[in-house]
Amino acid sequence: MPGFNNSDTPVLRGDERTVKILICGHLGAGKTTLVNTLSQIAPVSTEEVMTSASTAVDRLDLPHKRTTTVAMDFGRLSLTDDLVLYLFGAPGQERFFPILRDLATGALGALVLVDTRRLADTYPILQLVEDLDLAYTVAINTFDGAPDHPDGRLREVMDLAPDTPLVKCDAREWAGSRDALIALVRHLLTRTPEPAR
Amino acid sequence: MSAARPSGDDRLVRAYVVTSGRWSPSRNTLDHITLISLTASAAHLRHTHLNPEQRSILAALAGGAQSVAELAALLSLPVSVARILLADLLESGHIITQQRITQTATPDRTLLEAVLAGLQQL
Asked: Recorded GO terms, molecular function (chain A) (predicted)?
């Protein structure tokens, strides 16, 4: 099934269950691309405002600035008649932490996109996701011309826990992007205990 | 999305004018993905006291339910501002949310299994 197509954007009744997954990654990792590849609605972007909490960081460039706006891309997928998944492309900068904490509340988990040409940029993102207490899966976005390191080497460089899944996908391609989400949800299930009987 | 958007600061001022200067909603139960729909009585309720943004919200909901995040994007308003406007419309009886807010620390296994099955059959 292809991504966005105006004619088959499902209309919601309002009583569906909704869940959200955060798509994280450094600048240029492919967050927006992946959201747009999978979304069944036209790509949308919303803004959030940060108030005085960020002034310590913003003070350097603009003394009187008390607010910062940050754009977040998001998409929507109807999984079943009763279940809707929202994907939020989350800004990776540490100073947006208050907004991310709000967004991460109630999220199932995070998919962390990585460009292997910018592995060092991924460290703060992984730290951020861990600070948010989100379970995550790392997806290497297979950009044309990006080096294809062995998984063991990538895990070592990113210092991934042994049980953190590492997958590869091309964020422009629907099936691979969908499979990356499946890997994440499988991982989330392994971390969620069976209900006591 | 709207073609011409006011630049940052102007728009922020406008955003908080429409909430009458309030920075937090009258109730704090609206997540980004909370679905909002019109009440059956919305069409019969008074609209005269509503501001243009709130009327736009009601118009956007005429075609079906929308999440808080989608409504905010449609109106080019920050999510935090949309939450305030929506809380007012909830109290005035124009809109409802039929969802239970799920903010539990541990995700529900049944829900995760449903998400997995849904993704696999797309």
From this structure: GTP binding; hydrolase activity
